[in-house]
Design goal:
The protein is built from three helices and ten strands. By secondary structure, it is an alpha+beta fold. The chain has two domains: about 1-35; about 40-230, no CATH class. The longest helix is centred in the first third of the chain and has 31 residues, at about 1-30. The chain is elongated and about 55 Å long. The N and C termini lie far apart (about 80 Å).
């Protein structure tokens, strides 16, 4: 009888030890399967504004406007030139409170003056991302009506051959007033930004050559802010 009790006690202890070991293994497995979902984060950098004047020397803009220092005479307008202007000026800066917003200031504007806004968006998060919608913030009403987007380009930094290079994804000539610039969103949505890589974006604007002094005052300073949203690489975009 004593021998039977001893066997029973041994069996109970063995089962308890097995249960304790199983519980410990389950807890350890739970810790090992913890997953970090990652995060989306971007940085705007290398922002700048290049300016150019579209009135030839001796030429006259629409509605009889002259570029600053331009004498009256025959001639006319030329297409936008990629040369720094000596008359107009522009500055692009990342917003201090929200580093996803780019603030653009344009100085000494007049009908025909041009501005090229350039910047890069770097994926500083822990996972691949893609471009989404463009949002326009806080712009002067006159600027919304008479600053015209003439051309925009988007380049992605991708593997080419054995190395990496800038590859054009969008290159369009348009005629869109600033207040309607969000309409280009559908052409940039979905462009990939792999982790630690950048996209390069360029917007070329021109002040409406037909604008009158009453519509947009010559030699006046204006500004606008915009943001391009970025999403997780596999997130649906409406």
């Amino acid at each position: 009888m004593k021998k039977a009790k001893f066997l029973l006690l041994t069996l109970v202890v063995a089962v308890m030890l097995t249960g304790a070991g199983y519980a410990y293994w389950k807890e350890e497995a739970k810790i090992l399967t913890t997953v970090n979902t990652g995060k989306i984060d971007i940085m705007i950098h290398d922002e700048n504004v290049k300016t150019f004047d579209n009135l030839v020397e001796g030429g006259v803009g629409a509605m009889g406007h002259h570029g600053p220092g331009m004498p009256s005479g025959g001639g006319g307008n030329k297409p936008p030139k990629d040369e720094d202007s000596v008359f107009t000026e522009g500055v692009a800066k990342v917003d201090k409170k929200d580093d996803n917003i780019l603030r653009v200031s344009l100085y000494r504007m007049y009908p025909g003056s041009g501005y090229e806004v350039n910047f890069k968006i770097k994926n500083t998060g822990t996972m691949d991302a893609k471009l989404g919608d463009l949002d326009l913030y806080e712009f002067d009403e006159a600027l919304g009506d008479y600053l015209i987007l003439k051309e925009y380009k988007v380049y992605a930094y991708e593997k080419v051959g054995k190395g990496y290079d800038w590859v054009a994804k969008v290159n369009k000539k348009v005629d869109i007033r600033l207040e309607n610039i969000e309409s280009i969103s559908n052409t940039i949505k979905g462009i990939a930004i792999p982790k630690d890589k950048s996209v390069m974006i360029s917007f070329k604007f021109e002040v409406d050559r037909a604008a009158t002094e009453q519509q947009i005052a010559e030699m006046t300073d204006y500004g606008f802010n915009f943001k391009i949203n970025v999403y997780q690489f596999n997130e649906p975009i409406r």
